[in-house]
Fold this sequence. Notes:
This protein has about 400 residues and is an alpha/beta fold. Helix content is about 35%, strand content about 15%. A 6-stranded mixed sheet has the order 3-2-1-4-5-6. Strands 9-8-7-10-11-12 form a 6-stranded parallel sheet, sandwiched between helices.
Amino acid sequence: MSKIKFNDLNLPSCKKFSGYKPCISYINCLENGCQLESEHTRTGKKILVISLDALGNVLLNTSILPSLKNKYPESTIYWITMKSAKAILLNNPIIDRIYTWNDEDRMILRNIDFDVVMNSDKSMYACSFANEINAKEKFGFLMNGDGKIIPANKEAMYNYKMGIDDQLKFRENVRSGSEIIHETFDLKYTRSEYVFNFTPEEFVFINDYKKQIKYDPKKTYIGFNTGCSNLFPNKKMTIEQHISLIKDLSEFDDFRIMLLGGNEDTERNLKIYESLPKTVQKNIIYTPTNTGIRNGACFMNVSDIVITGDSFGMHLAIALKKFVIAWFGLSCWSEIDLFERGEKLTPEGLECAPCWNKQCPYDLECIKMINLKKIKDLVKKYSLLKPLAGKNN
C-alpha cells in the first residue's frame, strides 16, 4: 500500500480549512480550490503566544496583538492560557485560536510547526512547554538543561533581569509592563492598548442591566472594585476604608456607587454593604460577583470611574477605557499605564514599597496611608470629564 505524500494533497492555505469538514457546505476545497482565501484568511506565519498566569497579566499582554499584526500582517495567532483566563480572550478579532492549558490542547500544539513562539511567563511549566514547541523562532523565556529559566532572545534580557534584580524592579524601572513585553518579543512599541471586546449579546445584556438599575445618564457611576486575588490579599484596602469612602461619596446626589468584584469578593462586598447605613444602601448598586468574568466586565462597563487596587479589576477597567483611580502598596506602580485616564496613588516616602511580600512586617503601613480625601477629590474632578470616559458603552 502506497503512502500519500502530504504535499500531493494541495491543501488550501486558509485559516478556515481544518481537513475535517467543508468550510462551505457542498464545496470541495481540494477539487474546486479555496473559495474563501484572501490576505485575511491565509494562514501565513503561525504564531503561538504562551500567556498563562495572572488574569491581569493575560489582559495586559493583549496589548501586543496590534503590534504582532503590524510585524506579521499575514499570520495566524494561536494563544494558550489557563482555563480561568480564557474568557478574557473571547471575541478578540486578532486571536484566531484560543487553547486551554490541558493535556489535549498541549498535545495539539506540540504537533504544529510554528514559525514563532512567544512565551511571556517566567514559570517552570510555561518555559518547559515553550521548549517543546516546534518553532523557527522563540522569544521570551525557556528552560535550560539544569531546569533554570533563561531568556530565549537578547531582547528579553531586561525583562529577565527584572525578575532577579530587586534594585532594578523596585527602584529603577520606570517602564510599563506593556512596553517591557513588547521589547521581550522584539515588537515595535507604539503604546497600543489592551484588546477586549464585548459581543453583540453582551451589549444587549449591558443595556438590559441599565434598565434594571434605572440607569440615569445624568449621574456619575462610581465602581468600587473592592478586592483582588487571594494570592496577594495585602493589596486590598480595608473594609473600614471602603465604608468611610463610600459614605463620603454617597453625600453627592449626582453620584451612584457600584460594588464590583469576583467570586473571592462576595463575602467582602456583602460585609461592606451591610455595614452601611440604610440611607446609603438605597443608593448602592450591588452587582453579582458569581456570574463570571464576562458578566463582571458588563457590570463594570456601566461605571464611569473605577476605584481599585492593583488587581485584575484594575486591568479590566483600563481595558474598558474607564477613568481609573488606583492605589498601590506592595506592587510596582511604574509598570501600570493608565493611558491618561485616571491617577495612581502611591505610598510616597515609604522605603519598603513596593516589595511584593505576601506578609508585611510593618502592619500594612502602605494601605493605612491611602489618602481617602484625595480619592474623593479625584472622583469629583473626573466626574466632570464623564463624556470622555467609557468608550465601550
